[in-house]
């Protein structure tokens, strides 16, 4: 039976406390500081202003960590992924969401942390708006790698790209990911294994892990979003009759 642990606090601090080789996959969407190439780009707009359109019909809370330039982002992400590497088992897969601006920086950090970079998966969002004068920016990217070598003894075949819009009904986070996409991604974790998400947000990765028979360890800095993730994870366990391990403060 699956279980979860949700830590409230700073991701790097929590990761340093995790035992060696205690998780089997790392799947996460860090605050990747989109547009962080200049001081004005990273400080003049909130996360909500960056990631939602001006006429958005919701008032979702902002989240911290969106003020780094690319150099500091790479250093910070490298340290995080290094700790995640230590805490991961041999053959563990890491998947890190990014946008086009931070794609090169993210691949640097992933490899500097020890992971073998193995590819980039496009996530195409059909509901994105056209861009006057040129191609629309309708994609995010999932950079993935492996600790050591990929375990090719498992009968798992995943798509090389995903097409899905962000949730609209009951959306609770600015950058919320579709659970149906996350359910496919968590299959890189062996059944009964543990998925780690250092930036749990509203808990979509954890919900996907529980639905697919995996355990989940999440970390969330924002008290607001940690509370939402807690409610959603409890609900997922209740609906699917999983054993509740409970949250960790």
UniProtKB/TrEMBL annotation:
Name assigned to this protein: Methyltransferase
Region (Disordered): 26-64
Swiss-Prot/TrEMBL keywords: Methyltransferase, Transferase
Molecular function as annotated in GO: DNA binding; N-methyltransferase activity; site-specific DNA-methyltransferase (adenine-specific) activity
Keyword Transferase attributed: yes
Pfam families (alphabetical): N6_N4_Mtase
Top enzyme class: transferase
PANTHER family: RNA METHYLASE-RELATED (PTHR13370), TRNA (GUANINE(10)-N2)-METHYLTRANSFERASE HOMOLOG (PTHR13370:SF3)
GO biological process: methylation
Family named by the database record: Belongs to the N(4)/N(6)-methyltransferase family.
EC annotation from Swiss-Prot or TrEMBL: 2.1.1.-
Basic and acidic residues bias (residue ranges): 55-64
Record-annotated DNA methylase N-4/N-6 domain positions: 23-230
């Amino acid at each position: 039976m699956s279980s979860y642990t949700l830590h409230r606090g700073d991701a790097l601090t929590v990761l340093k406390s995790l035992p060696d080789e205690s998780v089997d996959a790392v799947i996460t969407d860090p605050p990747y500081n989109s547009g962080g190439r200049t001081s004005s780009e990273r400080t003049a707009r909130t996360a909500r202003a960056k990631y939602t359109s001006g006429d958005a019909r919701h008032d979702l809370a902002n989240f911290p960590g969106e003020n780094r330039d690319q150099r500091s982002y790479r250093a910070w992400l490298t340290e995080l992924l290094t700790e995640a590497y230590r805490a991961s088992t041999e053959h563990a897969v890491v998947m890190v969401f990014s946008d086009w601006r931070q794609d090169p920086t993210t691949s640097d950090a992933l490899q500097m942390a020890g992971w073998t970079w193995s590819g980039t998966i496009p996530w195409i969002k059909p509901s994105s708006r056209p861009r006057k004068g040129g191609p629309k920016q309708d994609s995010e990217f999932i950079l993935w790698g492996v600790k050591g070598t990929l375990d090719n003894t498992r009968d798992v075949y995943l798509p090389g790209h995903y097409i899905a819009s962000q949730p609209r009904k009951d959306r609770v986070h600015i950058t919320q990911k579709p659970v149906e996409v996350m359910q496919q991604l968590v299959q890189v974790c062996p059944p009964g294994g543990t998925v780690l998400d250092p930036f749990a947000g509203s808990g979509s990765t954890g919900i996907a892990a529980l639905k697919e028979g995996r355990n989940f360890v999440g970390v969330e800095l924002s008290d607001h979003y940690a509370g939402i993730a807690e409610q959603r994870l409890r609900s997922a366990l209740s609906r699917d009759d999983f054993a509740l391990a409970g949250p960790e403060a």
